[in-house]
Write a structure and sequence with these properties.
With 208 residues, the protein is mostly beta strands. It has one helix and 16 strands.
Length: 208
Amino acid sequence: MFGLQKFLLLLVLTLHGGGIIDGGKAPESSMRYMVSVQNNGGHVCGGFLITNNFVVTAAHCFDDYLTHVVLGNHTLKNGQIVKINKPFVYSGYHSLEMGNDIMLLQLATTNDLHDAIQLPHAEIDLTENEVCQVAGWGKTMSGGKPVDELRVVDVSVINPQVCKNQWPQLPANVICAGGYGTSKGFCQVCILSNVSRFLFDKCTVLNT
């Protein structure tokens, strides 16, 4: 297990309707693997570096005519712009609700300035109430306006039965997170599907 405790890194993938609720600003120079995936209109999805020329993000972002990523800064207005060379959508992806919402982006140039994320061991397991760390861009309160600064908040893994109450067709490989009895969290739907140790919902990507 990497680090002192198991944790999830959640990256907000969509600016529209997504956000870090009741979180705080991410420390300067932290989470240098964070990436803003953009089109000509600006931020679309979050992602993270896994090598110096590959980014992981969500497959449902593919339809937004992605053109480039922004690296190396906590604000969306600054940073290094790198063009996207080619997207690779996971072949098992058909719709967001069915899971498998994962995509690799090959960058046009290699990146030597920023750290790739340290991937976990494959055998890592998640338990109820396990603390996760969520990071991303978006709204800081329900109904609020999006912000450009990287935000972070702690959330907890939820019992699968609670998710089934909201999503009766919940697949067996789905994990929910957000915590009980708290306003803290990310987006407003915390339904996550497990694909090769990466977890996704309508707003986030997690790396266990």
